[in-house]
Amino acid sequence: VQLQESGPGLVKPSQTLSLTCTVSGRPLTQDYYYWNWIRQPPGKGLEWMAAIRSSGATYYSPSLKSRTSISWDTSQNQFTLQLSSVTPEDTAVYYCTGDSVVGSTNPAYRGQGTQVTVSS
User: In this predicted structure, what is the pLDDT of residue 114?
Assistant: First the structure.
């Protein structure tokens, strides 16, 4: 299983960040699996953000739920994270992951990560 993140490296404050993860080697809909987004701000630990299950059910971190949306395009085997109203505190390396549990920061599969900087 391989995952690859894509998205803008630089986003302005108050804008919406959109990141896409392309998965190869396993269909998103294959039971029973969770596809997650996690991030690591500079100098801090990993933070789980959101997940979409192989059934299509979605899960969100309570601290980010009001600003976060996760969705998928099963025809492309991709899933997408949208984070609205970004601030410089959202600057981080963002990773997409796959695992049999939700919320793991030590997943079975992880992309290489993409740096996102929020700055005007």
Answer: 98
CA angle 22, 96, 79 (to 5 degrees): 45
Can you state the percent helix, strand and coil of the chain, rounding each to 5? Answer: 5, 50, 45
Backbone angles phi, psi at 13, to 5 degrees: -55, 145
Beta pairing class for 34-40 and 47-53: antiparallel
Distance, in Å, from the CA atom of 23 to the CA atom of 1, rounded to the nearest integer, reads 7
Note the pLDDT of residue 120.
94
DSSP 103: S
Kindly tell me if the per-residue pLDDT of 104 is higher than 90. Answer: no
Query: Residue 21 half-sphere exposure, CB side, CA atoms within 13 Å?
Result: 32
User: In this structure, how many other beta carbons lie within 10 angstroms of the beta carbon of residue 22?
Assistant: 16
Q: Report the DSSP pairing between strands 92-99 and 34-40.
A: antiparallel
Residue 31 confidence (pLDDT):
84
The confidence band for 111, taking pLDDT boundaries of 50, 70 and 90, is very high
